[in-house]
Amino acid sequence: MNTLAYAGPGPWIFFVPLVWAAVIFTVVTVLRRTGWRGRRGPWRPPLDDRSPMAVLGRRFAAGEIDEEEYWRRISVLEEHFGRANPTPGGKGGAA
Prior knowledge:
mainly alpha
């Protein structure tokens, strides 16, 4: 005959789900920090350092052209090549 009484699982029943939650949280955190989404992070279009916009931005930052010249050339580039960063939905401007 069994001399020990069985009183159910007791408070340990809460321990197992907590352990699994900690394991899942740790795995997700490690994956996100080590590049789960790839080496580039969130999706962005690739940057081309030789694009006309990038060259113009570097020249403006270096002080080779002033702000007025920068904006004039940006508008010309947008006329010829379209907007560099189109708005979602493909429509430019405010509603």
